[in-house]
Amino acid sequence: MNIRAVKKIVRDIKESSLCVGCEKITMACTEFMKASEESNVDGCERAMAQIKREFDHLKAEFSEIIELDRDIRILSTPPQA
């Protein structure tokens, strides 16, 4: 793992997650940053795995919200004659 390259990406993800209130992703990014400062490769890998898990969970939640919104729009649209 190229910790320097990943660190920049994780920093960007952290900033974005802060903006939209994704606290668990933000915390995992903070853990990655801490581990990278300590040159702790195992800690970086654990934090990356946590970031991925949280991202996957968030993606599933957003997909469900989008699907519900789609259903609501369909149900609230008057039938066409």
UniProtKB/TrEMBL annotation:
<dbReference type="GO" id="GO:0000160">
    <property type="term" value="P:phosphorelay signal transduction system"/>
</dbReference>
<dbReference type="InterPro" id="IPR036641">
    <property type="entry name" value="HPT_dom_sf"/>
</dbReference>
<dbReference type="GO" id="GO:0009927">
    <property type="term" value="F:histidine phosphotransfer kinase activity"/>
</dbReference>
<keyword id="KW-0902">Two-component regulatory system</keyword>
<dbReference type="GO" id="GO:0005634">
    <property type="term" value="C:nucleus"/>
</dbReference>
<dbReference type="GO" id="GO:0009736">
    <property type="term" value="P:cytokinin-activated signaling pathway"/>
</dbReference>
<feature type="coiled-coil region">
    <location>
        <begin position="34"/>
        <end position="61"/>
    </location>
</feature>
<dbReference type="InterPro" id="IPR045871">
    <property type="entry name" value="AHP1-5/YPD1"/>
</dbReference>
<dbReference type="GO" id="GO:0043424">
    <property type="term" value="F:protein histidine kinase binding"/>
</dbReference>
<comment type="function">
    <text>Functions as a two-component phosphorelay mediators between cytokinin sensor histidine kinases and response regulators (B-type ARRs). Plays an important role in propagating cytokinin signal transduction.</text>
</comment>
<keyword id="KW-0932">Cytokinin signaling pathway</keyword>
<protein>
    <recommendedName>
        <fullName>Histidine-containing phosphotransfer protein</fullName>
    </recommendedName>
</protein>
<keyword id="KW-0175">Coiled coil</keyword>
<dbReference type="GO" id="GO:0005829">
    <property type="term" value="C:cytosol"/>
</dbReference>
